[in-house]
Amino acid sequence: MSTFSIFLILIIIVSFLLVLVIMVQNPKGGGLSSSFGGGGSQIVGGVKKTGDFLDKSTWTLATILVVLILLSNITLISNTTSADSKLLEGSGIENRQVPAAELPQPAVPATNAGDSLDGQ
Q1: DSSP state of 6
Q2: Is residue 24 a contact partner of residue 54, using CB atoms and an 8 Å limit?
Q3: Is pLDDT larger for residue 63 or for residue 97?
Q4: Among the residues of the chain, which ranges form H helices?
Q5: Residue 33 pLDDT > 70, yes or no?
Q6: Cβ atoms of 31 and 78 closer than 8 Å
Q7: Who wins on pLDDT, 103 or 38?
Q8: Which pTM value belongs to this model?
Q9: How far apart are the C-alpha atoms of 45 and 109, rounded to whole Å?
Q10: How far apart are CA 85 and CA 30, in angstroms?
Q11: pLDDT at 82
Q12: Could you tell me the CA-to-CA distances from 15 to 12, 22, 63 in Å, in that order?
């Protein structure tokens, strides 16, 4: 398993945890919940310490997620080979002359000797 795959799995786990922590948090009011009539009646935790813990865990998980994304980008760039194609390097090009018989001949419109440009 490559390091990029490990970072990808960690990013998915941290993203899932971040969604869970955000969904558990108590709304501060003034958002969508107050517009639907649930202003102050929806107290889930009510304890000040729980709110602080959820706020800190949200910021911590968000920071970890950003760091993991940056590290995965660095490992992805370091694992790839040269981005230049073989054509740019010149190793895949054969220097050969194209014979004249292989060149396409230009199409010439057929005209009859009796046709005249003036007799239209």
Answers
A1: H
A2: yes
A3: 63
A4: 3-24, 32-35, 48-79, 86-89
A5: no
A6: no
A7: 103
A8: 0.52
A9: 87
A10: 56
A11: 52
A12: 5, 11, 11
Q: Do residues 22 and 58 lie in contact, with contact meaning Cβ atoms separated by under 8 Å? A: yes
The backbone torsions φ and ψ at residue 74, rounded to the nearest 5 degrees and listed phi first, read -65, -45
- What is the arithmetic mean of pLDDT over 80-105? 59
Question: Which two structure tokens, joined as six digits, stand for 28?
Answer: 């501060």
Quick one: CA dihedral 76, 82, 84, 87, positive or negative? negative
Q: What are phi and psi of 2, to 5 degrees?
A: -80, 165
Query: Of how many residues is the chain composed?
Result: 120
Task: State yes or no: pLDDT of 42 exceeds 50.
Answer: no
For residues 31 and 19, give the distance between their C-alpha atoms in angstroms, rounded to a whole number: 18
**24 Cβ contact list (under 8 Å, min separation 6):** 44, 54
pLDDT above 70: residue 28? no
Nearby residues of 57 by Cβ (< 8 Å), 6 or more positions away: 21
Supply the pLDDT for residue 2.
85
d(CA 102, CA 29): 78
